[in-house]
Every structure is written in structure tokens, then in C-alpha cells.
Design goal:
Number of strands: 20
Distance between the termini: 94 Å
Largest sheet: 6 strands, antiparallel, barrel
Strand order of the largest sheet: 2-11-14-13-12-15
Number of domains: 3
Oligomer: single chain
Low-confidence stretches: 36-41
Shape: elongated
Strand content: 25-35%
Number of helices: 3
Radius of gyration: 49 Å
Length: 383
């Protein structure tokens, strides 16, 4: 027990001052390393933004519409004779193509060939008869003068017989022309390059005057009726009178056919409101040559169209997404954000045409900021 007490006394004797000295040293070091109460100044950051220079432009109003393609020229093949169908071309099948001058259908021509021969003979007989009557009339006139009878009567000079002979010849000639036409009508020849929509007869069928034999249409030119919204009518610059538009005033049209662009022209502005759409319409024409042989133009096909309308002067073309409640955010000449109320002349797909509210030196704000405050300072690169 006494040994333990002596041991504690010795430890206190040797380590006591050391602990005190160590404690003082640690306290001193802590005081040296204590952070100073320096005042941190808040750095004001000016956001960097993307902008777009706003410059007035002259643009053509772009008018969107849509419609279905139809042929410009379409023809019902109607029989003008009573006859039997003698021959039908293999091109006269639904969907088949044919060329200008191809024979499509032929009726039995024999009766009409005989009628033509008869009519030709009747003309020859009438001509001979007329010459005979002329000779008889001349002879009668000479005889009358020879006997000194003075002015002869019409009957004595055979004038009625001569007039009848002339009339007979005219009638014979008319019958000959009719016979030629009837023979021509027995053959149906394609009046254009085209395609068969329907076939309504076949070899051996008996047809009568007015019988429908088929329907064909031209593949040279096509038309699309395009309805025009009320707000777009004034931007066409057209008179909706139903008349053909002169070439120099025809509007350009771009059609989307199977993802490819095909050009056309507005050739007519209809004078009446369409009963289905309750809108005025224009008619655009597409030439087969416009698809460069790709066969993109198909009758009955739906297509979207963009019409290039009248010129619009001094407007700003703004992305539609930047317009909010008829206003937009700009960076002005002082490099400050400003919310400008604007007048939107018209919307065109992804863009808006603005004609009022933008000032010289304004740049359109393109960046998205967490908050937008009028007068807020920003910075941007000068492009």
C-alpha cells in the first residue's frame, strides 16, 4: 500500500509540470489557428445569355393548305353508235397506262364501211346529175334565144331542175360526211397520255348510243383544290372570281408527296365558298414533269401544300415559342432584359411575323433563365 502511494507521488513530481506545459502549448496553437472574422463580400454574377439579332425582313406570306390530287382532264368513253364491240386493247384495263394516239376500243365497223361506200356513190351520182342539169339548162337557154322568145321562164330554162340537182348534191355530201364520222366513231383513240380509271365493256358486247365503255384521265397535268382560311385570303393577293389566273400572277406552290417536294402553281381562284369546308378555295396545277419521272403524283392522293403568297414588308421573323401572351423578351442596347409587347401580324407554322413592338438594337433572348426581370443586366457575345 505504501509502495503505491510513493509511486503516485513520484509520477506527480515528474509529470505534473509537463502536463501543464503541454496544455498551455495546445491552447496557444489553437489561438493562432482561430479563423479571423473577415467580412466576405458577395460577388454579383451577370448571367451570360444567347441572343439573336432582330432585323426587319421582306418575306412572302406562307399559306398552308391541303387537298386531294385529281386529274385535270377526264373523259367518259361513250358509244355514239349501235354496234358490237369488235376489239379491246390490253391497255384498256383499270390502272393501265396508254399514250396519245393509242387505239383503246374498236366497234364492228362493217355496217359503217358499207354506209360510207353508199354515201360516196350517192355523191358521185349527184355530181353527175348536177352536170347533166347544167348542160340541159344551158341548152334550153340557147334554144330559147334562138327562137327569139325573149326572156324565158324559169321552167323553160330548167332552173327548178338545176336547183334540185344542187340540193341533192349537198345532201349527198352531208350524208357522206356523216358516214365518215360514224366510221371514225367506231374507233376510240386516246386523245392524251393517260391512265384507265374504269373499263365497262368487253369484246362481243353489244352497245348502243350513250353506252358507257370506260373512263380515262390524263397524266400530263393534275389539279388540287386547296381551301384557304379566312385570315389567309388577303395574303394571296388574288381575285376569287373563278377565272384563269394570268401566268405572271400565278402563285408558287410546294407539295409534299411521300416526303418529297413537288412544285406547282395556283391557276384559278374559285368564286364560291366550298359547301363542305365553308371556305374559299384556289386550284393548283401540277405537271407530270415536276416529279422527274419518280411517279410521285397519284390520283386520289392526299397532299399538304405551302402556297407562297404576297410579299410582307418590314416584319421580324420570330420563333413561335418565344411569343408569350403577345410579348417577348429581348436584350436592349443597354444589355438589359426587357419584355416587349408586340403585334403579331400572322403565325406561320413554327414562326410568327411581328410588325410592331421591336426597337432598333433589340436582340431576341434565346436562353432560358430561372427568372426574368425587366432591367436585369446580362451579357452576350457580339455575332
Amino acid at each position: 500500500m505504501q509502495k503505491k502511494i510513493k509511486l503516485r507521488r513520484k509520477m506527480k513530481k515528474y509529470f505534473g509540470p509537463g502536463f501543464l506545459l503541454l496544455s498551455m502549448l495546445l491552447a496557444f496553437l489553437m489561438i493562432l489557428n482561430k479563423p479571423s472574422a473577415a467580412v466576405e463580400e458577395k460577388e454579383i454574377k451577370i448571367p451570360y445569355v444567347k441572343t439573336m439579332m432582330l432585323l426587319p425582313q421582306i418575306v412572302n406570306a406562307q399559306i398552308s393548305s391541303q387537298g386531294f390530287i385529281k386529274p385535270r382532264s377526264e373523259l367518259n368513253l361513250l358509244s355514239q353508235l349501235n354496234a358490237r364491240v369488235d376489239w379491246v386493247s390490253e391497255k384498256m384495263e383499270e390502272g393501265s397506262s396508254f399514250n396519245l394516239g393509242d387505239t383503246l376500243i374498236r366497234l364492228d365497223p362493217r355496217d359503217y364501211e358499207l354506209a360510207l361506200i353508199t354515201a360516196d356513190a350517192n355523191v358521185l351520182n349527184a355530181e353527175v346529175n348536177l352536170e347533166r342539169e347544167k348542160a340541159e339548162s344551158d341548152l334550153a337557154s340557147k334554144e330559147w334565144k334562138r327562137v327569139g322568145g325573149g326572156i324565158g321562164t324559169a321552167l323553160a330554162l330548167r332552173k327548178p331542175q338545176l336547183a334540185q340537182a344542187k340540193a341533192t348534191l349537198e345532201a349527198a355530201r352531208a350524208n357522206l360526211e356523216r358516214a365518215k364520222r360514224d366510221l371514225d366513231r367506231a374507233t376510240f383513240i386516246a386523245p392524251f397520255n393517260g391512265r384507265v380509271r374504269s373499263k365497262n365493256t368487253d369484246i362481243g358486247s353489244t352497245v348502243f348510243l350513250g353506252t358507257l365503255l370506260g373512263n380515262i384521265y390524263s397524266t400530263e397535268y393534275f389539279e388540287v383544290q386547296l381551301p384557304i382560311a379566312d385570315q389567309d385570303v388577303n395574303f394571296t393577293g388574288l381575285d376569287f372570281n373563278g377565272l384563269q389566273i394570268p401566268d405572271e400572277k400565278q402563285l408558287q406552290v410546294s407539295f409534299n408527296l411521300g416526303g418529297q417536294k413537288v412544285n406547282g402553281k395556283v391557276i384559278r381562284a374559285e368564286a364560291e365558298v366550298d359547301p363542305k369546308t365553308r371556305m374559299l378555295s384556289v386550284v393548283a396545277s401540277i405537271s407530270k414533269n415536276e416529279d422527274e419521272g419518280k411517279n410521285l403524283i397519284l390520283v386520289g392522293q392526299y397532299t399538304q401544300a405551302m402556297i407562297s403568297g404576297t410579299k410582307v414588308n418590314e416584319v421580324f421573323v420570330i420563333p413561335r415559342t418565344n411569343i408569350r401572351n403577345e410579348s417577348l423578351w429581348v436584350v436592349d442596347s443597354n444589355m438589359e432584359l426587357m419584355n416587349r409587347p408586340v403585334n403579331v401580324l400572322r403565325y406561320e407554322n413554327e414562326y410568327a411575323l411581328v410588325n410592331e413592338g421591336i426597337e432598333k438594337g433589340d436582340r431576341l433572348l434565346l436562353s432560358r433563365l430561372s427568372s426574368l426581370i425587366n432591367g436585369q443586366k446580362v451579357t452576350y457575345s457580339i455575332d
